[in-house]
Design goal:
Elements lengths: L1 H10 L3 H4 L6 H23 L4 H5 L2 H4 L7 H6 L11
Length: 86
Amino acid sequence: MWALYQQTSAWGLRPSKALHIAQDEWAAYQFDYAVLELGRWVETGLREEKPLEQLLTSPAARAPRRFASLKAKARGQRPRKSADGK
């Protein structure tokens, strides 16, 4: 979506027009707005010198993964913290 924002901004197009989402005007507007919001959010992050990869990766994808053992799950226990404290 970031690439779509960059391309349509450079070409002066609405993202919905670039992807031919024109049958439903409301859906096209919502899509254009979502692309605009993401694009501006990423641009703001870049101005704050945040890495692009960090901006485009969800926090859930960056979080360390912890798995409970089947025995702990059966007893309703939470997974233990890893050695690094996370």
